[in-house]
Amino acid sequence: MALSSKAQAIERDFYNARAKANYAAFSELARRYVKHNKEGVVFAQTALLEQAVGEAEQAVRKAQGWSFLPSLDDTPEMIAQPPAIRPESIQEAVDNLERVVTRGSEELQEYAGIVLARAAIATNAPDRLQRVAHYLRNIQLPPAKIPTGHNFALVACGLTVKGLALEDEGKLPEAIVCYDNVSLMVQAAPTEKCEELAVWTEQALYRASLLKLRQGDQLAAIRSFRAYHNQALLWPNSFPLPRRATIYRYFTQCLSASFKSHTQINGANGSVSAVIDLEIAQIHAYWEDALYAVTPFPRATEKNWRVLNMIEQIVNDRKLFGGGNDADKRALVETIYRASQKTFQSPRILRFLFFSLVDMGQYDEAVLSLKAYLDLVEINQRVKEGASDEIFSDEQRLRLDVESEHDIVSVMVAGSRLYSKDLQQPDEALECAKKALETIQKHLHSQDAKSLLSQAFLYQGIAYGLQAAKAHEPDHRPQLYAKSLESLDKAIEILPLSFENHYARAVQLAETREIPAALVAVKQALGLNASHVPSWHLLVLLLSAQKDHNKALELCGVGLKESDWDKPETDGLVASQLEGEEYLALRITQAMLHDQVYGAEAALELHEALFHLYTKIFAPEPSSLGESLYDIQNIRQQQQQQFQMDQSEIELGSTLTVPTTAGGGGGRRRAGSILSVRSRNGGSEVGLNSNGTGTGAAGSVTNNTLDVPKANYASSITSSIGSTGSKGRRSGRSNTVGSASAVAAGGGGAVGLGRSPLGLLPTVPRETTKAIQRRARAKKVLVTLWLLSAATFRRLGKMQDALKATEEAERTDASNPDVWYQLGLLHTAQGDSETASVSFSKALALAPYHPACLARLGCSYLDAGSLDMAEGVLETTTRGQGWDSAEAWYYLGKVFEGSDRLVRAKECLWYALDLERSRPVRAFTEAVSRIAA
């Protein structure tokens, strides 16, 4: 019998109300529907049962204060359930439907059976599972012909209810099949959307994912996680966030574990890593948003351990997939800062922040987080002293936010490394190393912390060496050097196969001119790591100190072959910029040795190549360019453009299929990616040449070829003698290689966060300490190259060319004392002692303890007959940082000889001779780093 138009309109309204679970409208719609359609009683009573169940569920949840928050702690073995309703609260509606159900069509009877089954599963009746089986016994789920509208949601409801019943009976495989059928249905009908459908779809996908994990089927769980995520993009933002956070937590863990397993079986695969990295970056972002939406700031007695768990997982994943570019590192720091706003004085957060800031290169902020961490740990340890020495598991430490002694020592050791390597602050480095050693001795067994113990001794030794190098007290310096070697020997004793330990000991021995022992140590380092370029460089310098220049030059070629830089097939893109600097340093030493072996003219031929190499090395790093993969600003804007893993999935097993939608090519997607920088400040950095035009990573850094020397040097130095400097002439400089320092300035790339630990996010990013230091190194290296050319020209008698090269060095960095010292030597060679004296004075004004300048000053006093003045200057020099200056000791010996103190004179002259015999072509600690990597 055809329905009247009035009945059809009411039926449509009824379907819409049921789809939206608008229970308040059900009673009136049922009355009107039955009035205009006498045969619609089954349809009406089915809806009224839905209303009774829905309202009963709402009432019991409100009475018990239930929400989805317990789902934050769901595990595959224990899934939180909403409170059950009492059977009597809906019994009348059940009875009403059962009385009339046979009066409807077969289709209506099936939908009524689904609603009855739903009502049964929602109660705490003892026979509820039997009732569900009874109601669904003759219903085909899924049906051969999938309906549409609210009936589509009822089918999803029936499959989910059947799965819940099977799950309660312990029939997990059969339950998972039901849940998977829901997933297949909704994927096949993307246009079907209603609130009731979302409720049942979410429950089915949620339980399927966790049950598959319970069964140990990780790959199947990943497929369900992806299906859940793709559907969640279509749900309201607040629906239901705690369960979303749980899904993303396990999703992330499964992706990481599967990637590790795949890598172990099949080896590293760049394209696979890029695709999984992209996916896991998205999941991190959604996990963070979902968790923070339901996580308040903790009270005094609370620990937001879920936030700590998330951040730990994110940090570990970033280690797994690599640090990424500068924008990625900045994004991680911002992520940790956001976590600090959901936690309170968390040492774990400070630890993650410290390591991330160090990796990012924001060393000043890293120091703040380090100090805050050590202070907080010290306070916690004082509180703990009165309590029993309880041993916590990793899970307990996470929930209580208690740091293990191993983690504490790791931070102390890393802090010592930061202070000694990156900040050149030996006192602070020594303090951290001593704290680490003390903590290991008190709380850790040496065998369990061998690596940390060795590193602590290593950085303690390096710190002592740095203190000795900066010391001005001659009596104190030998003690510091002795302590340095003692610490380094202990590091080697603990880990004899660590090439870093042997290398550091070799550098220290070389600095104190114990050349034979240093040679043994560096050969041991090379025996453990033959590809370490600084070790080769140190060996070359040690051979040059023995005056075996031919052998040293030969080994230069061997060491250079170990580097990936300056090879046509790699173009310097495989190795890091720091490795490039090490390579360039060895090439400079090679040029100096070439000068010693073949003469200045032959050495000059190598200089142009050094300038070309400089421009390549100090151009912006490829890894510093591009946007961050780990930001979600565009994720929220482009939710509908998410990768569709149901159509092209990544199978992380013995074989792996890469979806083309997630990351083309072999690298990570950057420009045009569905992800972009959260703060939108991680764009590509470019340098500026002297005309102000931009230069990219692959572009030329200057407009001119790098000829040495240039014909258009500016005459700034000669006109500035006696003046205060040449800053006023900066804008008028010519477009030459000197402007390459501007490229290095622009190539630092990264910008950081202007904030202190646990503060608010900054609004204006700033340049990282690492970038600033890189620019300073770039200027220093460029000055070295120009002064190397200037010295070569001077020795060849080409004074004009030497002057022009020196002027270019001054253009690059007028505050470098070596520039003015080299100019003084040039004027001395020209017989202009007065102008030379002014140049040396300028150098000393910039660096009062410059050993070479002080030696020259002492010589000038000696030549003028002012023995007392000469003795004062030279005594200060040899007792201070010029203790290894052969010239200073020689002139001091001449001073004693002139004042008839022959014994002292003999001692000084013999010591000067010893120093000269062991002098390398370049100062050891100037050419190589004290720390291996």
Task: Please provide a written account of the structure.
- A hairpin with a 5-residue loop joins β1 and β2.
- It contains 40 helices and 4 strands.
- It has a two-stranded antiparallel ribbon with strand order 1-2. It has a two-stranded antiparallel sheet with strand order 3-4.
- With 933 residues, the chain is mostly helical.
- Helix content is 64%, strand content 1%.
- Among the domains are: 5-216, no CATH class; 404-495, no CATH class; 599-638 and 674-834, no CATH class; 848-933, Serine Threonine Protein Phosphatase 5, Tetratricopeptide repeat.
Give a quick rundown of the structure.
The protein is mainly α. Among the domains are: 5-216, no CATH class; 404-495, no CATH class; 599-638 and 674-834, no CATH class; 848-933, Alpha Horseshoe (Serine Threonine Protein Phosphatase 5, Tetratricopeptide repeat), CATH 1.25.40.
Largest sheet, order of strands side by side? 1-2
| First-last Cα distance | 86 Å
Which segments are poorly predicted (pLDDT under 50) over 5 or more consecutive residues? 634-763
Largest sheet: 2 strands, antiparallel
Nearest-integer average pLDDT: 83
How many strand elements? Answer: 4
Helicity, in percent? 55-70%
Structural class comes to mainly alpha
What is the rounded Rg? Answer: 37 Å
Number of helices: 40
Basic shape: elongated
**Strand proportion:** under 5%
Organism: Actinomortierella ambigua
Keywords: TPR repeat
Protein name: TPR-like protein
Family: Belongs to the YPP1 family.
